[in-house]
Design brief:
Shape: elongated
Number of helices: 1
Order of helices and strands: EEEHEEEEEEEE
CATH topology of the largest domain: SH3 type barrels
Distance between the termini: 45 Å
Strand order of the largest sheet: 1-2-3
CATH superfamily of the largest domain: SH3 Domains
Structural class: mainly beta
CATH architecture of the largest domain: Roll
Number of domains: 2
Protein name: Protein YjdM
Largest sheet: 3 strands, antiparallel
Family: Belongs to the YjdM family.
InterPro entries: YjdM, YjdM_C, YjdM_N
Helix content: under 10%
Length: 111
């Protein structure tokens, strides 16, 4: 049986593990149905492991220093209508009093 290459790293050494296909080089797992669609969705999780989606409302879980500002983003700040992006800071948002900024998902929790 000819298995598809990994959608993340394009490795040809994929193998089946139950219902999933697994890449031994980058440890990416996906279902055989996904490989037929070739859709690569961005998966972003909050500090508690909950999946985040565009438009969600999150809360900041610790005080964060804001580069270029003397103020800090305080714990408990509510952020509405987030947008997920690829990269190190994977949340784009607008915060009242601060404006547009990017946050890391590990410092927020979903409401």
């Amino acid at each position: 049986m000819n298995l598809p290459n990994c959608p993340k790293c394009n490795s040809e050494y994929t193998y089946e593990d139950g219902l999933l296909l697994v890449c031994p080089e980058c440890a990416h797992e996906w279902s055989a149905d996904e490989s037929q669609n070739d859709v690569d969705e961005l998966v972003v999780k909050d500090a508690n492991g909950n999946l985040l989606a565009d438009g969600d409302t999150v809360t900041v879980i610790k005080d964060l220093k804001v580069k270029g500002s003397s103020q800090a983003l305080k714990q408990g700040t509510k952020v509405k209508g987030i947008r997920l992006v690829d990269g190190d800071h994977n949340i784009d948002c607008k915060i009242d009093g601060f404006g547009a900024m990017q946050l890391k998902s590990e410092f927020v929790k979903k409401i």
